[in-house]
Amino acid sequence: xxxxxxxxxxxxxxxxxxxxxxxxxxxxxxxxxxxxxxxxxxxxxxxxxxxxxxxxxxxxxxxxxxxxxxxxxxxxxxxxxxxxxxxxxxxxxxxxxxxxxxxxxxxxxxxxxxxxxxxxxxxxxxxxxxxxxxxxxxxxxxxxxxxxxxxxxxxxxxxxxxxxxxxxxxxxxxxxxxxxxxxxxxxxxxxxxxxxxxxxxxxxxxxxxxxxxxxxxxxxxxxxxxxxxxxxxxxxxxxxxxxxxxxxxxxxxxxxxxxxxxxxxxxxxxxxxxxxxxxxxxxxxxxxxxxxxxxxxxxxxxxxxxxxxxxxxxxxxxxxxxxxxxxxxxxxxxxxxxxxxxxxxxxxxxxxxxxxxxxxxxxx
Length: 364
Ligand SMILES: C[S@@+](CC[C@H](N)C(=O)[O-])C[C@H]1O[C@@H](n2cnc3c(N)ncnc32)[C@H](O)[C@@H]1O
Known about the structure:
Number of helices: 16
Shape: globular
Number of domains: 2
Largest sheet: 7 strands, mixed
CATH topology of the largest domain: Rossmann fold
Oligomer: single chain
Structural class: alpha/beta
Helix content: 40-55%
Strand order of the largest sheet: 3-2-1-4-5-7-6
Bound molecules: S-adenosylmethionine
Distance between the termini: 71 Å
Number of strands: 7
Radius of gyration: 23 Å
């Protein structure tokens, strides 16, 4: 029997209360920790499940897309060497590692140092015995990274293109038209040119053609004219300035747009295509993708698989053409014709998956 406490026993000390979340004051978050309960999981242990049940992504996390389909496309087996070319939060890597054990090896890449370090820490804690190495670098240099590791190639390589939810949700990165922040958009902090620099220096004609070709923006000419017309007197340095300029063009204020409850009606934010264009340009996303597709066949071992998640038509076109060329030249034995789409259930649970398309190819 345990000891019955007497009236004279010392009262047991209260467990220390976790520090209170900083109260968020205002309507636009500038600091993650002030706005989101998800940033204090120690205070709100159930919060991630709760947020996911609402079809949202917890702030500071990323929900991996089409995981089952990606795993199937890569045909993994124990002992495989796999390159996760866009490590992000490490969600796909988490699913890959058990498939290649025992004896497998994971190489993780990301151009974003903060993402890479966070994912590396998470993965090392979850899989302490797995062979893993992490590379702060662009996947366009996959051939050099493999050579530096003394590898003749990999059995599978996977890229989940674009930005992670953590990057989008963090106002200080400047990726989001939803939050005010510096108009930055660099995934790799070593890049020197921000989105604000681009807007200040691109010619009006170049802006028009970029908006059309990279995001199918139907209002490209008007948006480019408005930017060119105001930037000398008022340089566009923040996400909010750019959003307000585009909303003004459409005859809307921020409040009016918010009141339209557009997301429920499936409307795209008027600034979304301009933000996408700038992000692609700042990070030379299509240049990196083209270079990856050039080197990928030489980085895959015979029979190795390449799987790519694309998110817009520009990426899809480049991947389709590269796979068709690879088939013609006998580099690939087979390749996806129509990309695989996410299931209706996944789109409902994670709306950010809606535009994802999975492409795959198998090395001869
Ligand atoms: C969509 S997220 C990946 C999410 C990840 N699959 C997961 O489940 O957590 C894309 C990541 O790729 C990185 N990235 C984008 N382009 C890259 C490139 N050319 N080379 C290496 N990493 C890149 C971004 O910084 C971002 O962290």
